[in-house]
Write a structure and sequence with these properties.
Layout lengths: L7 E5 L9 H18 L3 E4 L13 H10 L5 E8 L5 H14 L4 E6 L6 H7 L10 H11 L21 E5 L2 H10 L3 E4 L7 H11 L11 E9 L3 H20 L18 H10 L3 E4 L1 H15 L3 E5 L5 H16 L2
Parallel strand pairs: 1-2, 1-9, 2-3, 3-4, 4-5, 5-6, 6-7, 7-8, 7-9
Helix pairs in contact: 1-11, 3-5, 6-7, 8-9, 10-11
């Protein structure tokens, strides 16, 4: 069996499954972190979304702390902290405190979007100015806060100074690729819901990358959907949970994560199907052999440095098995 050597990681939006309460969704998030840690996954990132009753990932740093507390060595981080919603100093203090308690286990992924609708964004905003435009400055502030003592200004993050928490730029557009390249930081692209600019963003990031004190050469993470099962047929059934998840996004409805169905055509219209499918087009789907072929073909084309999988599967055991199959493929088992 050919071995596809690549680090694997997990993104979790912490969805609430149909029939669950918020506490059970948080417990499931921790349970998946523990399972993927045992499998040998590199990092486990938790998203930030607000005013979304189907997800419990609003207070991301609290969920990260909770996950660190219940795991042993897997890196835990944000996918991401949406900086327009937060003061860089508060982020630096929170992450500085967490890394003091759990040394060398924390990642800070940063996003430019608010992770919600405009009305909620307005309720979250730290200023009435559009802080989306201060994103590059906010990142520089954070790099300074985590940097050496001699680089600090009057305002410092305590704890935080000298912790050198790794910062990752998250993006779904070419704009973030340009910024990550210019700052010489690792870049994670959101192909799991916004694949349209993936090719262009990867190419821009690599061609414009400027080596920095943080990174000598480009480090490209791609986040994609993974629905792996014992057979192609079973995977196609499990896929309908993810299809309903994206239909929810297209419709702007607030339905919890649903069990699989036999036929999606009874649920969505053709335009809805096209929109949901275009959002989720970067998906590894099938039994082990299919996953292997798709992954090899993906890597032949993009040769990314790390893959981050998000797996919307209703049954928690099948979700864990999906991550296990992906890891077995990468390990050549």
């Amino acid at each position: 069996m050919s071995n596809i050597q690549i680090p694997l990681s997990v993104l979790n939006l912490a969805p609430i499954r149909e029939g669950q309460e918020a506490k059970e969704a948080i417990d499931a998030m921790v349970d998946l972190a523990q399972a993927t840690e045992k499998m040998g996954y590199t990092r486990y990132w938790i998203a930030e979304h607000h005013n979304t009753p189907t997800l419990v990932s609003s207070a991301t740093s609290i969920l990260i702390k909770h996950t660190l507390e219940h795991t042993e060595h897997i890196r835990v981080g944000s996918g991401g902290i949406m900086l327009p919603n937060h003061s860089p100093l508060v982020v630096a203090e929170q992450f500085g405190t967490m890394t003091t308690i759990y040394p060398n286990r924390l990642d800070l992924g940063l996003g430019r979007a608010p992770g919600t609708d405009m009305m909620t964004a307005s309720a979250l905003r730290r200023s009435k100015n559009d802080s989306v435009y201060t994103f590059p400055n906010d990142i520089n502030d954070l790099l300074t806060y985590f940097g050496p003592k001699e680089n600090q200004g009057y305002v410092k993050a305590h704890p935080g100074v000298g912790t050198n928490i790794p910062i990752y730029i998250l993006g779904s557009s070419t704009e973030s690729a340009v910024l990550a390249a210019k700052l010489g930081l690792p870049y994670a692209f959101a192909s799991h819901f916004a694949p349209r600019y993936m090719d262009e963003a990867i190419s821009i990031y690599r061609s414009q990358f400027q080596p920095s004190e943080y990174l000598d050469s480009p480090y490209m993470i791609v986040c994609l959907n993974v629905i792996a099962a014992e057979s192609d047929e079973e995977a196609k059934v499990e896929l309908t949970t993810m299809q309903q998840f994206f239909l929810n996004v297209v419709r702007g409805t607030k339905t919890l994560l649903q069990p699989p169905v036999e036929n999606m055509d009874h649920i969505w219209s053709l335009p809805e199907k096209q929109m949901a499918t275009s959002m989720s087009s970067v998906t590894l789907l099938g039994g082990k052999d299919s996953i292997r072929k798709q992954l090899m073909s993906f890597q032949e084309k993009y040769n990314v440095d790390e893959l981050m999988g998000v797996s919307y599967i209703y049954d928690p055991d099948k979700q864990k098995r999906s991550y296990e199959i992906l890891k077995e493929v990468v390990d050549g088992n």
